[in-house]
Amino acid sequence: MNALIQPAHYEDLLRLPEHVTGEIIAGQLHTQPRPTARHSRIETGIAREVSGPFDRGGSGPGGWLILVEPELHLSGQVLVPDLAGWRRERLPVTPDGAVEVVPDWICEILSPATAIKDRKLKLPLYAQLGVSHAWIVEPQSKTIEIYRRDGAHWLLLGTHADQDEMRAEPFDAVAIGLSSFWDW
User: Fold this and answer.
1) 36-43, Cβ contacts within 8 angstroms, sequence gap of 24 or more
2) 182 and 49 in contact (C-beta within 8 Å)?
3) How far apart are CA 73 and CA 18, in angstroms?
4) What pLDDT shows up at residue 4?
5) Distance of alpha carbon 184 from alpha carbon 182, whole angstroms
6) CB 155 within 8 A of CB 144
7) With 0-12 CB in 10 A as exposed, 13-18 as middle and 19+ as buried, what is 126?
8) Measuring CA to CA, which of 19, 71, 119, 133 is 20 to 30 A from 152?
9) pLDDT score at 181
10) Are 57 and 63 spatial neighbours (Cβ–Cβ below 8 Å)?
11) Which are the contacts of 97, defined by CB distance < 8 A and separation ≥ 6?
């Protein structure tokens, strides 16, 4: 006879060792090792390119709040995207704790430990929750897939690779330098 699986609770996340990160998706605890230095470098490059013109407004339109690895508490889920962004009119100040407002944009950087979870569990969940835009970054192939939500599904707008710059929703007002993403 199969034992009943108990739903995960926030306290389960708090008990994880420091070298492990976790999320609660559909009541299940999902864990993975902390990101590698390469992963962090890509994350930093994307954050720098997007935050400058959109969060800080330097040589760009501003109007966004961009956070690295925010803890999202949304509809009973605890999610930690690599990057997330909110239009300032929806989230005018940075919360002190977990964010309970659905982001307008998320970015997931795939790794062997997270690729299936990010694509199969989190991407559909982000659409259900109402996230408008998603970027999926594949470090191995140096590609970035750009998605826009279309109802409960994602519409692939394009894949960027092997180029110096890209214009990608929702940040297409400014050309974003790709070389800093892969600069490791």
Assistant:
1) 36/111, 37/184, 38/139, 38/184, 39/82, 39/109, 39/111, 39/139, 41/183, 41/184, 42/109, 42/137, 42/139, 42/181, 42/182, 42/184, 43/68, 43/69, 43/82, 43/83, 43/109
2) no
3) 20
4) 65
5) 6
6) no
7) buried
8) 71
9) 74
10) yes
11) 71
Closest to 83 in 3D by CA, of 63, 97, 101, 103: 103
Q: What is the DSSP letter of 54?
A: I
- Which residues, other chains included, contact 90 with Cβ-Cβ below 8 Å and sequence gap of 6+? 101, 104
Encoded tokens for 117: 């979870």
pTM for the model: 0.93
Alpha helices in the chain (DSSP H): 10-14, 37-50, 115-116, 123-129, 179-182
Give pLDDT < 70 ranges for the chain: 1-4, 183-184
What pLDDT does residue 159 have? Answer: 94
Please tell me the distance from the alpha carbon of residue 67 to that of residue 39, in angstroms, as a whole number: 16
pLDDT of residue 184: 55
Q: What is the pLDDT of residue 1?
A: 47
Q: Are the C-beta atoms of 83 and 106 separated by less than 8 Å?
A: yes
Nearest CA to 77 out of 115, 35, 116, 28 is that of 28
